Amino acid sequence: MSATAGQTMALPPAAGKRRFSSDLPQVWIGMALIALTGFGPSLVGNSYWVHTFQLVNIYIAASVFQNFLFVDAGQKSFGQGVLLGLGAYVTAIFFGLHNYPFLAAAAIGIAAAAAGGLLFALPALRVQYFHLGFVTLSAAIVFPQLLMSLDRWTNGINGIAVSMPDLQKEMVFGLSPLTLIVALYPMAALWIHYFIRRSRLGRRMRIAAISPEAARTLGIKPGVMRFIAFIIAAIGTGVCGVLYLPTVAFVSPQGFNVELSFVFFFAVVVGGRGQMLGPIVGMWIVFILPNIALAQLVEYRLLIYGVLTLVTVMLFPDGVVGTIERWRLRRSVAGRGEQAFRVDAFLDTLGAGHDATPGEDVAVEVRGGLKKFGEVVAVDRADLTVRRGEIHGLIGANGSGKTSLLNVLSGLSRLNAGSFVIDGREATRMAADRIADLGVGRTFQTPRIFSQLSLWDNLRIGIDARVGAGDPGVARLAAALEREFSEDSADLLSHGQRRLVEVMRTVLKEASIVFFDEPAAGLSQSERANFAKLVTFLSRRMGKTIVIVEHDLDLVWGVADAITVMDAGRVVATGAPAEVARDPAVQHMFVGGRRA
Amino acid sequence: MLSEIAIIVVRGIAIGSIFSIIAMSFNIVHGATGILNFAQGNMFVLGGFAAFFLANGAGVPLWLVMLAVSAMLVAACVTFQGWITLLPLRSSVEQDSWLISTVAASTIIGAVLLITQGPYAYNVQGIAPSFRILGVRTPGAYALAFGCMLFWFVALRLFLTRTFSGLAISALSQDFDAARAAGLPVRRLQLVAFAISGLIVGSAGYMVAPVISVTSDAGLRYVLAAVVGGIGSNLGTLIGGPLVGVVTMLTAYRIGGAYQDLASLLVLVAILMLRPQGLFGRSSARRV
Amino acid sequence: MLEVKGLYAGYGIVPVIEDVSFSVRAGEILLIGGENGAGKSTLMRAIAGFNRPDRGEVLLDGRPLQGMAPEAIAQAGLRLVLDGHRVFPELSVFDNLRMGAAARRSDRAGFAAAIEEIYTVFPILKEKHRKYARDLSGGQQQILALGQAFVAQPAALLCDEPSMGLAQALLPPILGFLRKWAESGTRIIIVEQHLQIAAPYADTAMIIERGRVKWSCAASELDRRLAAETHPAG
Fold first, then answer.
1. Nearby residues of A588 by Cβ (< 8 Å), 6 or more positions away
2. Which of A103, A251, B251, C95 is the most buried (most CB within 10 A)?
3. Which of B100, B112, B224 sits opposite A138 (nearest CB)?
């Protein structure tokens, strides 16, 4: 029946797979490069390069955090130089002018940077996109002026000089403590970035950045994610500021102008957004090239930053490392064909072992739901009752309001009038993440598959969204999926398999109520049959309540316990499948259209 | 006291008119392309430089000719920059490259101005005589700023609602795919939008050069103030721009002395923090 | 003649449309059916240039159109009406129609005549010609979207789900209009879910399944072919 079944090939065993993510090797290479440039000059005793790379390494660390903020959290900040400046200046004020112990002054400096990050994060809770860029940019413009004007505290244009000879003292092999610290810190920053990215927090942050809508249905508050990201980046960058102080031994307003913020941003872009190695390679190109090759032409620096970045965006939109990484991924993907993702075998580990039957109590109830988009009424005073444990089919022509109703129920849009209850809780005004935390899961018409994440991580974000203790059977399923799919790219999945991944995500989330939005679209007949089995399994063996919006009436009539029919936003029939099939209004609607 | 209030109001509105003009030049490009051109402020300053080099101390006829020349020169620059910015968007899936390329362009223009002209502020002689309003002696360029704002508001409104190209640019901003399906020449219209935004900032920069600081790094600040005034709606910015102008002027006056520049900047930053979409702006964004 | 030969298209590396071929002669309406997700919209978008086809040809009277930008394809005379009654909400009804003329700007007389004609067929557009399109109902917006395409007088028209979001009673007048339009020599493709309602207005029909042509037949045989493979539900 299925034309593409022949193309679906089984994969070689997991052991033979190429690595999906190159993050870890990139971190190791990054460590090696930083070690080379951080320690090398000291070993050969070249003090010019020692000093230059001290500063470069600090800037690399700041770019690592910019990279994290930009890609993992999706926040475009043009003001990271301000945070570094806050760390450096505040430390300098307390240490250099008020004679605090260095560590105490440093703590205050880092706190100041964190406070600065907080200021950036506040608008990020509400706006996105270029607005945020402007807020951070405005901070970068105002910062040096602020330092200049507040001369009572900052010494104004004269700056603050500090002296920390102990840190510069050479120990073994010509290495000073400072050289060690400023080389170790960017390495640490790389590891921090790496571990956050691999953590639950990191995955949720990334999902929130890529698809806020999907994130919310997984119980994620995108605003909170941004907030956390800004604070982490601010503290990390603040530490860079603290290290700047002994390295340069002097702070002045000119050192922290817009240019500095741009350098961090440009380094990430030129090196390769999101690549672990990106900030290192990018900083070398953006900063070292103009500063060292053209040391005499200081005023040309900005011009070179700008041109390098513009050229990179034009020629290598993915940046230097990103372009190489893309080539690697393409090569590892070549010849693989469509990927197999089957779950039947895994499902045996699940379920109560006996069949559940739909109860009488209500899981979802909508009363008089009205949803308008401008003048267009998408849902017109609809009533819907879904009993616990039942499979409820929601059918109707395209544009009849089914998906609008589903979006309302999952909290992605709000009713204009009417109300609905989920699991006995009034949920009409609940945000999507709260509804998700009530135990609701959903899939989308276009599956939300994130090609930046491995196939396993695409599934795992379901586990990340789970509320409460997990079922041991699901844990075994998860372990099996992890073994099988941790190095697979989600990009190679066929349409039908993408749907299956989304369904499995809700299983791993252990959602007790699941909304499927046209799950069978694009599936072959055999995939449909399997999907029908899967839905029945979820309902009968796992006791889930399921609402399924679907055009394949055979499928709906095959699995549903109750069916609701919508037309032009209104509910025109509801009841048991046999009753609904006899309803003249419904027969009129679907005769002839049923197979199309 | 009364005259001080008059100074604040008159000059505030005039400076605010500039913010409003820049915001309008943002709007037309943003509507047509979804791009917010970070380099727009530099282009405005370019207009100021044009006034210095082409028409400083010129008589009225030459001044008028050079106004047209300057506006078109800046429009050519903006169009070229727009063309570059739109290039990678044609094929790539990466749709926010414009953010990077316009910031990079802004950096490049600022740097070129710095290298060729140095970090100094240029003094440009005004063409319009100073006049008295509310008992306050006011440089003529302030009146030009206000007039320029009204002119561009009306001109844009007529263009966008009466002419075919203008309607088509509006259509682009409302439904990009439907516009392409209808066969509207999308890239050409987008370049026209860039060109018009260049005419706007070029003419404005030229006319108000005597009262702005024509320096290599002034660009971003005007952009900032324009954003605070609110972008997204020309009508909104007609009020938002002058309001921001008066507020910054008032702040500068109350604080005074060395801090006045800083204080007015801080007010802008504070407003942005509280209302990042600007005073009368709409926070919406569409992809190209 | 509009010919599509061996068309492949998709998103990224995921193929959606595979090896689709068909042709529509002048004055003919081809009705395309298929399940949601079968790739009908992707096919329309690929023909109209919104998705770059990976392989294959789109020929309008022998002229290859594949690989061109959507606006260029529209100007070459192939016009796609997107699904979901998409109009320019902040423009007046008249200005919306005017935008339709983008593909034939030099022909002012033809434009005026086309406007008159569309006003005669759908008087509601004339009645509301100064209203913003956003203030129209969904059905009126769909009519406006078609009217916009009509004033362009394309050689070929692709119409993606004209019934989407509309009450079914609105469909027959729209289809009747398309039928008359086709008879003036335009090649028309209609993607529709309500096959039974649409079939009487069409000449040929084609069913898409999983991105491939499942079968095609004369529109008059469509009912029988569908019934042959349908098994009763429930």
1. none
2. A251
3. B224
